[in-house]
DNA sequence: AATGAATGAGTTTTCATTCAT
DNA sequence: TATGAATGAAAACTCATTCAT
């Protein structure tokens, strides 16, 4: 759990007011997230973060310590934002197969709507995971989603639709794989293959990926 | 000794010795590939490239021009090496389903054996593809593989095993997705999920991914 | 002590002390002027400019941008300083011929007292004028002097001493020519001719040049 | 006197043939002259000199030693070329005043036709004359011209046209001043004054300068 | 006589970080 | 809480010069 930041609710979301520690911190974080995700760790500029946040560099150092710490905070923030998004997913009312389909499509859309998530993961993996390795509660981060998925798998198996022995984490990694790659690698794919990777293509791909996952789960009749 | 033009053939091609332009260029390229793929574009150091190549910085600038150009050359080299590896894949003798399985497993292994490929793609995509977009023959690069895949799909359909209308490029992107993600994201996955992503896990995952692809292709009986 | 805004007025303007942006800028400019005028553009070292200014290189880049911009600022400063000097010239009380003589002698002395002016002009002309060409108000710079000269010429003509139709700009270029060359080319002249080009020689030459100009202007009787 | 270079007359002036020491030396010198006069000493590139000469850098070092020596040779070459040009001037047949006028106009044209002369002098003076100071026969260089001028002055005086006591060197420096400055400073003059300094302007200025010199010499009636 | 290959020692420029208020 | 001024250390890039043939 992140330490409870008593953000003055009134201030939140607006352009950060001066003399407002919590707001400034938030603002720096958001700016850092954009900077690191568009330029990578080494390519990111503290100057740029300060400028975008509308605050001074010394303040950033006061709050975070050094570039590494800013990056670590931004990475954590990325995960928190993604997890917050995932909380909105509700698969309860749906039949198991439909629930899986909706999870796949949701994941694809989620990645598309929050492109800095993928960029931050790329960056962190390029760096060998040296930062996330030291993040305390990293392993709690997606547990809710995994639980939801486990429930659906159980339900599907109980209904006789899904095979047994499917591990939700393993399955989730499949789903993430299918959704992550075409977004993460959109630029190289566009250059290497003729196919147009645009919004429509990604929409279709979400459906097709859902198909693939469902076929994989189905009990063979 | 005067005009002895017999360049010692044994020396050529391998560890490049001094006063050998082609060898030096090769050596720089290899060094650049390592540097860029382990540190990303902005994190890479020309100094380091020179040191690893056992040559001086000015020579690098003489041969390539500037950091951008070194990077571009290394990116292209990456693709060339990967394509060369793909030429070794032979699916001709196998039944369609086996051929597909072998392609998936091969792809997974190929990515594992050439980790700089994935790192370079990550780097390039983080940079928005600005370099590969200007690479002349980028789109020829994987055409052989796609042709092989098309043949297998046709064969599978002819034999009544595979569904019709599967586009080989689209399918290849599925296969790449499944193989790319767990390798590319190994560090973040390790931190977020408890599962051990080690060699054995990746071996199993290759098989499982092959399963998924094959089920996706199969005509439903 | 808390909000004491009384910047010690005594400190301001002269040898710039730390934490004084305007003073630092000034100091860099002065240092750049010395460096560029003694070494030329390509020979000048930003390092040296910093050292002489007692400030760090990054600050120079912060204030000016790059070497070209430092040079441009120094060139403009050169002209401003020269113009400021020219404002002190007063020819009003003198008879026309005396006024001209005093202008010639003043010009010679002015060039001698501000040797970096000639060096900067030489440097800029060697560079093909690429910097001054883009200087906004370059053509306003010597207009005051030209006006003064025009008045004297008119006066001299009205008094029946000077010929008509003398253009002040053209005449000024004659005067500048006579004063510029022996100072600008002092080193080559010393080597090529035996004559000693020293202070006394330049004093005499100022008088002689004044003579030449006056004879040129005189109405032939 | 320069050491008699036995240039194979047949080779001279053409594109330098390989395996031809004298031709190569000549070719490097010409190239150096262009490079140093257009870029100044520090801005000149040995690489560029080699490229323009169509020869390799090591050859240049073999022939000249180092950059300083190339520069020194180019500077001396400049003077030699200028002196060679001055030999063509013939004032013998003309009345004294006409002879002076023709010398002024000739000087102006000579400077215009050989722009690298002025650039080299500028460069050398910017460097404080450190090279020409060590040139052995520098003071012989313009002696012929001075002698010619002395003759004309004597003749003019004998004819009762010119004043007595005019030193030819001093006069020559006046003439050079008038011709040098508007060519040397063409770029800054163009920017600072509105007047168009073009070929026509320089033609007129030659005449006007001749006027000024003649008026200066004339015995006042 | 001539050169392609190579480099040590700079030079400009950048950037994370701190000082002083 | 907040910042304008400043910098040490390092990065990319250059250039006169030499090596080996």
What do you see in this structure?
Four copies of one chain form a homotetramer. Chain A has a domain at 90-217: Tetracycline Repressor, domain 2 (Orthogonal Bundle), CATH 1.10.357.10. Chain A has ten helices and no strands. By secondary structure, chain A is an all-alpha fold. Chains in contact: A-B, C-D. At the C-D interface, α1, α6, α8, α9 and α10 of C face α1, α6, α8, α9 and α10 of D. Chain B binds a DNA duplex (21 and 21 nucleotides) through α3.
Brief overview:
Four copies of one chain form a homotetramer. Chain A is mostly helical.
List the helices and strands and how they pair.
4 copies of one chain form a homotetramer.
Chain A (H helix, E strand, L loop, with lengths): L20 H23 L2 H8 L3 H8 L2 H21 L8 H18 L1 H12 L16 H16 L9 H17 L1 H7 L6 H19 L4
Chain B binds a DNA duplex (21 and 21 nucleotides) through helix 3.
CATH fold descriptor of the domain at 90-217 in chain A? Tetracycline Repressor, domain 2
Inertia-based shape of chain A: elongated
Unreliable stretches covering 5 or more consecutive residues of chain A: 1-14
The major pleated sheet of chain A works out as: none
Name its key features.
disordered N terminus, Tetracycline Repressor, domain 2, mainly alpha, 221 residues, elongated, homotetramer
């Amino acid at each position: 759990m992140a330490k409870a930041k008593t953000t003055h609710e009134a201030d939140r979301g607006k352009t950060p007011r001066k003399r407002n520690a919590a707001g400034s911190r938030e603002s720096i974080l958001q700016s850092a997230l954009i900077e690191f995700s568009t330029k990578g760790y080494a390519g990111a500029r503290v100057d740029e973060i300060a400028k975008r946040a509308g605050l001074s560099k010394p303040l950033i150092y006061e709050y975070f310590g050094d570039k590494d710490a800013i990056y670590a905070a931004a990475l954590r923030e990325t995960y928190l934002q993604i997890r917050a998004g995932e909380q909105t997913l509700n698969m309860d009312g749906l039949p198991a197969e439909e629930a899986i389909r909706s999870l796949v499509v949701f994941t694809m859309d989620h990645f598309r709507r929050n492109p800095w998530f993928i960029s931050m993961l790329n960056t962190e993996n390029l760096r060998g995971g040296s930062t996330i390795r030291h993040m305390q509660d990293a392993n709690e981060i997606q547990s809710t989603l995994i639980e939801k998925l486990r429930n659906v798998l159980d339900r599907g198996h109980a209904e006789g639709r899904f095979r047994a022995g499917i591990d939700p984490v393993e399955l989730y990694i499949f789903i993430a794989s299918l959704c992550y790659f075409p977004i993460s690698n959109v630029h190289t794919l566009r250059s290497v293959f003729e196919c147009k990777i645009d919004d429509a293509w990604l929409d279709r791909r979400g459906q097709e990926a859902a198909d693939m996952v469902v076929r994989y789960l189905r009990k063979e009749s």
